[in-house]
Amino acid sequence: MLKQACDLPQPPSGDTSMFDRSDKGIMLKAIMVAAPILLCMGLLPLLSFYIEKLEENGRAEIVEYIAIAQAAMEVKFDAADLNGWQTGYAFDIIRKIEGSTRDDAIARSEFLRSADNFRRDIQTLRDMPLDAEQRSQLDSVQRDFNAFMELDRDIIALYRSGAPAARDKASRLVMGEEIQIFTHISQNTNALAVSITLDLMKKVAQSNSYGIVARWMMLVMWIVASAMAILLVRLLHKWLSQMRGLMQKLEALAGTDELTQLPNRRTWDIQIEMMLATAKRYGQPLAIALFDLDHFKQFNDTYGHPEGDRLLREVSILIKSRMRQSDLFARFGGEEFVLALMDCDLPQAVTRIESLRRNLPDNQSFSVGVTLWLEDERIHNTLARADKALYQAKNSGRDQVASLPPPAPGSAL
């Protein structure tokens, strides 16, 4: 029984694969952004050699188109920024992580800030002289953005409702319709930026002076390199923030039982060593107990595994609410739990455990084996003795606490 219960849970494979894809995706974006910067910086010295030959013909017209190109690039960068922050807080919806963290609130706030920037920059570009096709593309981006924000509000409302069905629907909307809308936004913003950039290149090519071409190509490269550098910094900052957030969540998941939200065996192994050291230092007794939910397999067979999961969650919440802050209650696996009671001798431990296991949900009961830790004893020996006491409780009819005192120091186990 104890050997099976002590098996360590494996971390969820879904989170790891999602983390890897996100990590690689951001690094790929960073490389793609860094490449134009290096290209521009490499071409700038060649263009600067001819800068003395520049002429001023067509300057005003090119300045106007550069401003339009800058505005189009801002819209494109805003779309990338919006997508990045939306991905950060959408991870929780897709993976169904319970609760909320400060990093999640920051990601949501940054998403709303990016949405305001996107809306503002679209209006700025709308006020500039565009041809009919470009204005039509901009109108399409505006419509998709409005639909995206409306859908996002619906998704957040569904997710925050707390209902499992609503959260499942929110997850499906994130992975389906929301991605499709944003893909369309990205395609149209890219097409618009390309169209305006091509117009800028045509105007430059039409200039009567090759000097003008060199001068304004240099300026465009500076603009592109600067904008790309800003985007690169944003991506790296976002990557580091996401890395910190995911590492904190993975660390919490690795130490918590997913079903009951109790500490798992990994956390037990860490915290029990600290409790042993404290008990030894202050000469306090430390009681160790193994709990086994009676007839749990029969309950599962009768009512189904979802009801069995519900029972485990409710029992865990109830017992944890009756514990002292200094106690440690963890799930070992299946229907078996372990409890450490600090500064508690064997009779006190039996009394405390009897109070913990009263009035369990669905008229269920626990069989419990309890013993005391012997100073300098390895904890697995103490657990083996508690397991032996648990067998005694089960063989005596279940629904009771059996205690087994530790052997006298120096005696054979």
Features:
413 residues; alpha+beta; Alpha-Beta Plaits; 5-stranded mixed β-sheet; 12 helices; 8% strand; disordered N terminus
What does this 3D model show about the protein?
This protein is α+β, with helices and mostly antiparallel strands and about 425 residues long. It has two domains: about 5-255, no CATH class; about 265-405, Reverse transcriptase/Diguanylate cyclase domain (Alpha-Beta Plaits). Helices cover about 70% and strands about 10% of the residues. The protein contains twelve helices and five strands. It has helices at about 1-5, 15-50, 60-95, 100-125, 130-160, 165-205, 210-255, 265-280, 295-305, 305-320, 345-355, 380-395, and strands spanning about 285-295, 330-335, 335-340, 365-370, 400-405. It has a five-stranded mixed β-sheet with strand order 2-3-1-4-5, sandwiched between helices. Helix 12 (about 380-395) links the parallel strand 4 and strand 5. Helix 3 (about 60-95) packs antiparallel against helix 6, helix 3 (about 60-95) runs parallel beside helix 7 (about 210-255) and helix 5 runs antiparallel to helix 6. Mean pLDDT is about 75; it is low at about 1-20 and about 95-105. One of its GO terms (molecular function) is diguanylate cyclase activity. InterPro entries: Diguanylate_Cyclase, GGDEF_dom, Nucleotide_cyclase, Rev_trsase/Diguanyl_cyclase. It catalyses: 2 GTP = 3',3'-c-di-GMP + 2 diphosphate. Pfam families: GGDEF. This is diguanylate cyclase.
